[in-house]
Amino acid sequence: MFEVKTEGAPAAIGPYVQGVNLGNLVITSGQLPINPETKQMVEDVAEQATQSLNNALAIIKEAGLEANNIVKTTVFVKDLNDFAVVNKAYEAFFTAHNAPFPARSCVEVARLPMDAKVEIEVMAFRG
Fold first, then answer.
1. What is the pLDDT of residues 71-116, one digit of tens each?
2. How many Cβ atoms from other residues are within 10 Å of residue 72's Cβ?
3. Has this prediction a pTM greater than 0.90?
4. Which of 102, 106, 112, 126 is the catalytic position?
5. Which of 48, 31, 45 shows the shortest CA–CA distance to 85?
6. Is 106 a known active-site residue?
7. 28-74: per-residue pLDDT in tens?
8. From the candidate CATH numbers 3.20.20.70, 3.30.1330.40, 3.30.930.10, 3.30.1540.10, the one assigned to the domain spanning 2-125
9. Alpha-carbon gap, residue 53 to 31, rounded angstroms
10. InterPro entries from the entry (predicted)?
11. Domains of the chain, residue spans
């Protein structure tokens, strides 16, 4: 197992890594919607979903993979009433990258770090 680390995604805010490379499988930690350049988080939930996905993509790209290698995502939302908005941003992300939609779970949580509205983790397969 090797740590995956990139400046293209925000640094971990706790005792964990941005992602791990297991050879054929790369797994990211949950990605908050923090812009790695500005260190800020936008308020809009659609933009948060897109930023979280962009952060995850930066991590798997560091390991030599692309969006079309993503096979599973887990989406954590603070309010399931935002499901349709998050879905639209999620669909736009994968469509823009000409990538198939991966398997996905989406769950509502009571609270996310830094009071984010969205956090997304991905698994990507090299093969």
1. 999 999 999 999 999 999 999 999 999 999 999 999 999 999 999 9
2. 15
3. yes
4. 106
5. 45
6. yes
7. 999 999 999 999 999 999 999 999 999 999 999 999 999 999 999 99
8. 3.30.1330.40
9. 8
10. RidA, RidA_CS, RutC-like_sf, YjgF/YER057c/UK114
11. 2-125
